[in-house]
UniProtKB/TrEMBL annotation:
This protein's record includes keyword rRNA-binding: no
The protein, known as: Transmembrane channel-like protein
Entry keyword annotation includes Transmembrane: yes
First-listed, main subcellular location of the protein, grouped into a coarse class: membrane
Segments crossing the lipid bilayer: 267-294, 364-384, 454-478, 506-526, 586-608, 685-710, 754-775
Region (Disordered): 1-95
Comp. bias intervals (Basic and acidic residues): 72-91
Keywords: Membrane, Transmembrane, Transmembrane helix
Amino acid sequence: MAHNVNFDLSHPRVEAGLESPADEEGVHDSFSQLIAEESQKEGPSDAIELQYQQRNPEDKDRDNVAYLSPSENRRWRIGSDKTGEEDKGRQTDSLLKDSWSSATLKILSSMPSRTIGRSRGAIISQYYNRTAELRRRTQRRASIKDFSRSARPSIRGYGVEVDTTDSAEKKQERLIQNLQNLSAVDRVRLLKEMPLNLSEKKSLRRLTLQMTKQTRSSSNLRCCSYLKFHIILALRHSWYNCLSFLHSLHLWQMPLKRVSGRFGSGVLSYFLFLKTLLFFNMFLFLVLGSFLVVPQAVYPPEQLENRKSFTGLELFTGGGYFANTLLYYGYYSNHTLHSCSKNNISSPPKPECDSKSLSYNMPLAYFFTIGLSFFVTCIILVYSMSKSFGQSFRIDKSNGMLAMKVFCSWDFKVIKRSSVRLLSENIRTQLKELLGEAHHRHIRSTISDKLVRLVMHGLGWILCIGATAGCVAVIYYFSDYMHKEQLKSSQNDSGDPELLKEASLLALPVLVSFINLMLPILFQFTAWMEKYNSPSLRTFVSLSRNLILKVSVLGVLCFHWLKRVAGSADNNKAFKCWESFVGQELYRFLIIDFIFTLLATLFGELLWRSFSDKVLKRNRRPGFDIAKNVLDLIYGQTLAWLGLLFAPLLPAVQILKLLLLFYIKMSSVMMNCQAPSRAYRVSQMTTIFITLLCFPSFLGASVCVTYTMWRLPSSESCGPFRGNKTMIQAGKQRIVELVKENPNLYFLAEAHTYLVENPLVLFVGATIFLIVIYFQSQVVDGQRKIIALLQEQIENEGEDKKFLITRLQSVHERKRTPARNLTSQVSLWNDRLV
């Protein structure tokens, strides 16, 4: 039958190579011979048999085409996707006839596509022939790459030699013998492809294993071979158990299944993206903790006497007691750590430290660890993005996907009641999404509706961009005002309490978080007024508007930190260690953003659900805003990447935030939110999330950190690069000193000169990453074209079948017409004689 199917080019069976439909001359010749033979077998019994079959529609062989009603016969049309097409000509019209000749019915019933699902004996006989052919091939080569991909026989597949003389038991015995002679991998693959039910497959597998064990027990194996065989079996069993255990350790496996079954792929993509960010921060925490935090914690610097006591406000401001800790840049030493230091106190090297003592150059470690973290993160992001491109941007036609979901999506290994319920909910939601996507394709709008919608969209964008520009201007001027107030308070040394000064530092983060909370509500209301037909389009538009807001806010904040704060380091004692101050600012923004997220979850979801249930007496709950929540995650991750240089332990804070956020959001979604009223499938959402994380977020953070290390002056009183004009010069100076101490390390100086100081290397590296992404997209585009050609090829094969069946029917009609004329003439002469 010609219908739309989806191909997966990454499937291992596709790599084996399919037979070309261009080599089907023998097939057409065989059909011509078949037509010629059947046309000679014309007799009166055929018509009588056909009439009898048409008068008995309840016969046991009801699956023949002639027994269908005219409407059912039209639905059965081979190779037709549209019932209203009228340009198929005489070939297609002849297929709509209610009665065919018995010879045509015999040929149709003997076609492999019509017999494969009815007879278990035919299946066993067919796969006996396939196993015999496969065993002959394995004598030449062990691979089964030439094995047919389809589980159903085709005209051009391997020969189906059905032996009707043998009983089903003999066929099954021969099939088991052939399966026994195959390798374990080929045997399992062949059993999976058999179109039998699960119990029959288990029975065949059990009988094959029993015969294999009997053969092995009857053979005289040596003691060593017998012991080796059982050791291999035990190791394999242990390996499978280990893999099963590791699979059960997947993070948040069951909660993600519940969300997917109840809310669909859109909400699921948010939690999967949160999980991805958690792994990124775990990697950063391990790298920075291993090379920076742990060595400095083992050899801490000399403690200051006037260290502040803990008051509790430091949890929100990040200052006070936390100011002089491992959390920030200013705590780390600017010299080499030696194992011979007394009391593990890091200090400049002393004469008693000889060359045999272990040393650790903290400035070099700080410089290269930050660079290595960004470089590896960039590689992971580019790989994830290219892989996501390959998984998302493929042809997913709704008709083929619906057939796959209906017939192939159930997992028969699931036996637990809760797992069965989750799987059924998941499949039901996916079917709703596919049906909604197919329904959306058939929606047609008039020109007037399009014009009205275009005007509404334009007004909505003007309103959203205007509100974003106004809020960004407010943040710019308020940050300038707060900066001037801090300069005045530090110069005049006003008598305000210390706690009040620290609390005033929360004003800017509170304002920014408030704007990030309120403006998405305006965006959501505007999208509701615009009345988008497609829920996925509405999600993408909301995503774009939230992205413009977040990028604008982060741009203003980076200008505030790298221009105003860093520029005031020489003129004011409050910003003498401006790197630590920027790290404290980033900490404050992360904490306040998390607090506002909790408030939005409490008041926006929990209280609204309670008010709707108890006051309004309606089951109307809020929906989950995917765009806002995803951009909040990207915003927080950008702050964490910016803080790698200024606060090395900021990824640990981000890990705690993401863990709490997952459980809070998961509970809120399951208890307070409702599923979308119109289910929709967002097939490319994960790819878009990774792309936004890579280009606006990671690229912006990398540019800011690189600009800081190359251009901005380092603080004179704190940090590993104190006493140097810039951080890059400090790294070069340390490498020169290291080469002088050990001439064998001269290659480090050359590597630093050509790889770090030369901007061409960064340009070439960025170009290579972009080329990789481009080639990956081109490969995916080529695969899409191949899939389209294969689908067109299947449709052409269906047209060939229609043509052959029509020709066969027309031959029988021409043969039957002279016989009818002769019969009518005989009856006429008989009437005249009477």
